[in-house]
Give the backbone structure.
Amino acid sequence: MKRNCTLRHQRGTQVLFPYRQNGADILRRDSSQTIDNSADLPLRNFLSWCETVGITLSDKVCLSKEGTVAEYGMLAKDDIEEGETLFVIPRRAVLSQSTTKVKTVLEEGKDSLESSSGWVPLLLALMLEYTTPESYWRSYLALWPDFKMLDHPMFWSKGERDSLLQGTGVPEAVDTDLANIQNEYNDIVLPFIRSHPDLWNPEKHNFELYKSLVAFVMAYSFQEPVEDDEDDEADPNPPMMVPMGDMLNHTSNHNTNLEYSPEALKMVSVCCIRAGEEVFNTYGQMANWQLLHMYGFIEPYPSNTNDTADIQMTSVYKAALQGSQSESEKRLLVEKWELLCEMEMVGDKGVFIFSQTGSLTDTELYATLKVLCLSAEEFEELRASEAWEEVEDEPEKMALAFSEEGISKLKPAWKQLVHGAARITLDSFAGDLEADKAVMDDEGAYGQLSCRQKCALQVRYGQKVILHQLLRMTQT
């Protein structure tokens, strides 16, 4: 999945992702257990429904609760070679705003259903289909009888989120999500429901159901890629529910990929998969805080090679202010920051993203450090010329400058700002790296933690490791 520009990576915003996950269990079960799905009536009904609607499943794979990392998953029964099709889903089996039985009603009311999330039409369809016994997708939706398996942080208490996930960015993101969900339901969904009493009932299709379905869409929906993937400004396709496709769990080291065609969707192996191994999809290059926020699970350290740590853009500004020696220097920094905001290089909620191999937001970080470290004369010359584009440099040069190797070779003034910002970020966490590591290394202590505590610890620890690595590289 492409990373958008930094200003779109803002903590505290509800973001759409074209990937899904089922379950919050971060521990892998013993794959040697015997697979027996005969007693799982919902799963048997689902598989029968799949045959009815034309979903074809390879004889080399099976769905199971045993031997997988979450509630349900897919296992290889025989060796699978690269390029094999594991299952095919006809478009008629996909549940979306254009396949639901109320598609005409949703289309007629599309202007009143516009929202920042873009999810309202699908959520209205899901509310109706989920509560209709004769729904075409009844056997599919029955796999989630009450959504209790969803354990996104939005279902944690605020105190639990704030104490366990302090500094990670998740509490702020969830607070924003919950406010957005409430406003979306009250301002858009409820009026639409009341205007169609023959289809929806506010007592049955209430806010609690809506909130659960938002988490369901977060965790299980897909978004088909836009045709022109070079156009970052193109509107994303609306989310859709993909039966069978959403049964696969995620890992950054995945072994399948979903392919789209006008007639069907198919899951294809991207490498050899041995008998007994789990079949994994990928939901994109997701850091652990994103996985927990959007899907309710994490990849245990150090298996998530896509893990990242965010540094608030304002923390770099604060680090610069801390290093200023006089009021005139502080005023100059204020002017520099205002220019960067005008250039749309920074924002109050924007973040610089760092991975284990360096910065993932080269352009914005390069411009910020360059402008903040200009002398008064250089800054006046830049502002007078209005040559904002000259602040940027060749992409290859910037990428090298903020690679794991390049960061340690930055100018001392630049390293000082990054170092100070990393320290400010670390100070926002509860506890230190050594304390978290001690718990993770102690099998007994770690085993006593709840699943939520383990997830939060893994998120915190992964971010702190990256930030401490950044401190070492920028030590002057």
Notes: Residues 170-194 form the longest helix (25 residues).
